[in-house]
Design a protein that fits this description.
Length: about 110
């Protein structure tokens, strides 16, 4: 019986092997940095240029006046004969006029 007791004492006195310490967790800023960087890249390469393009197109549509030479999205060249709220009357040839939406205008000549 003493033998069991001495075995129990020996087990309690045995040195516990050291476990490797876990590396410290990175800070929250270090974890979010790649996500923030990705969002900034998307903003400057995709979102911002598209917003600027839409703004320029809206300015073009609002600046259309009678007598302007324009090109439509379909490639029709003509002179603006009449301007309404969202429509224009485009003269493409002598006595040939086409009523179009202002949003169909791609550029001024």
């Amino acid at each position: 019986m003493n033998w069991f007791i001495s075995l129990a004492h020996a087990a309690n006195e045995a040195p516990v092997p050291a476990t490797p310490a876990a590396p410290p967790a990175p800070s929250i800023i270090a974890q979010l940095f790649p996500l923030i960087l990705l969002i900034l890249i998307f903003y400057f390469l995709l979102i911002r240029p598209q917003q600027q393009r839409q703004k320029r197109q809206a300015e073009l549509w609002n600046s259309i006046q009678k007598g302007d030479k324009v090109v439509t999205i379909g490639g029709i060249h003509g002179t603006v004969a009449e301007v309404n709220d969202d429509e224009i009357l485009l003269e493409v040839d002598k006595n040939t006029k086409i009523r179009m939406s202002k949003s169909a205008v791609a550029a001024k000549e």
